[in-house]
Task: inverse folding
């Protein structure tokens, strides 16, 4: 029995071992990913992002428990936040509260190490997610922290993206940038027990209007606008307008509503055809990244390093433009 078969049969130890192989981009890990690929494509991937301390880990804990207990789903959590309480030995943020989850075979929590992964964290996260998918985990939560490219990469990976905000983190406008709002499918105002929750919610709703001009146009004109600016034929399914939901993760309040919104979004994606569109776009970017990697590797085999360095130094001396350098390296002539 090999590792792949053991993982497909639900062996947790094999799963943990395989995740490490995949994360470290070993030969065995790559071969396993290939073998597992036909078994992927069934999971609902949910990205959870937002500033540190907004309560993402607490929310994911609660959601995992909810989907486990209420829906009987197998749930995996991938924590990409290096400061996350999932990391550093502690399996779960609040051990007492989540004790029932920790021993549950239907739940698997994995912290991503930011080190080592060749293709970058996004690639490694995608690979780990595929392993969970193949292993039969139906809901996969991916928690990331920060602001910028990492969030956009997560959104590209996920079917549903939750953006989490909370009152009392200083300037709300600063805490959540319009760029993050653009990727949100569901907005969460967590820590609703804290003063200022109403203000945070109002601010988010205001920014949402600005961040989703096409959705606003739809609301105002009754049909979506095409990228050309011309109106498209109205589709059967209406556009998704991101709901803004309040939660108190520490007390489990608003979790049922949030879970329903996540399921509702999945239904919407399937009904509108966006599920397939997202899958295709995700697989395309994965394919393109691999192609790029392989083409460069092949090129490196054909062109000796010394030759490459020589051309590079001529570019540095401004004797060649980068375009000429590429032609020279690929075709042997600069023009
Ligand atoms: N008052 C209150 N505290 C919360 C709530 N949710 C999380 N917290 C606390 O906020 C802190 C940060 O939570 P955590 O889930 O680690 O946030 P993350 O950094 O976004 O993952 C922890 O001490 C939590 O117990 C909430 O709804 N209300
Ligand atoms: Mg966290």
Result:
């Amino acid at each position: 029995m090999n590792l792949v078969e053991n993982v497909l049969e639900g062996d947790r130890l094999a799963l943990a071992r395989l995740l490490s192989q995949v994360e470290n981009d070993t030969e065995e890990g790559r071969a396993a990913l290939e073998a597992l690929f036909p078994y992927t494509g069934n999971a609902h991937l949910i990205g959870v992002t937002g500033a540190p301390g907004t309560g993402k880990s607490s929310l994911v804990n609660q959601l995992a428990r909810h989907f486990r207990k209420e829906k009987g789903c197998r749930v995996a959590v991938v924590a990409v936040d290096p400061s996350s309480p999932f990391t550093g030995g502690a399996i779960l943020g609040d051990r007492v509260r989540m004790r029932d989850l920790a021993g549950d075979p239907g739940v698997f929590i994995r912290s991503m190490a930011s080190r080592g992964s060749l293709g970058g964290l996004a690639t490694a996260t995608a690979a780990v997610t595929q392993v969970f998918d193949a292993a039969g985990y139906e809901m996969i939560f991916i928690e990331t922290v920060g602001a910028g490219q990492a969030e956009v990469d997560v959104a590209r990976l996920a079917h549903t993206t939750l953006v989490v905000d909370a009152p009392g983190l200083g300037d709300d406008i600063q805490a959540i940038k319009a760029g993050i709002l653009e990727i949100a499918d569901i907005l969460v105002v967590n820590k609703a027990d804290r003063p200022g929750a109403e203000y945070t919610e109002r601010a988010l709703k205001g920014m949402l209007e600005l961040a989703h001009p096409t959705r606003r146009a739809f609301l105002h004109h009754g049909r979506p606008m095409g990228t050309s600016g011309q109106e498209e034929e109205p589709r059967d399914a209406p556009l998704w307008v991101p709901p803004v939901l309040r939660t108190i993760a520490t007390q489990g309040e608003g979790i049922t509503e949030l879970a329903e919104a996540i399921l509702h979004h999945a239904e919407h994606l399937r009904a509108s055809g966006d599920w397939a569109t997202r899958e295709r776009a995700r697989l395309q970017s994965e394919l393109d990244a691999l192609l790029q990697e392989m083409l460069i590797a092949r090129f490196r085999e054909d062109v000796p390093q010394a030759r490459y360095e020589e051309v590079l130094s001529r570019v540095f001396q401004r004797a060649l433009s980068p375009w000429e350098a590429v032609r020279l390296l690929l075709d042997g002539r600069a023009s």
Summary: The chain is about 50% helix and 10% strand. The longest helix spans residues 274-302. Confidence is low (pLDDT under 50) at residues 84-99, 216-234. The first strand starts at residue 44 and ends at 50.
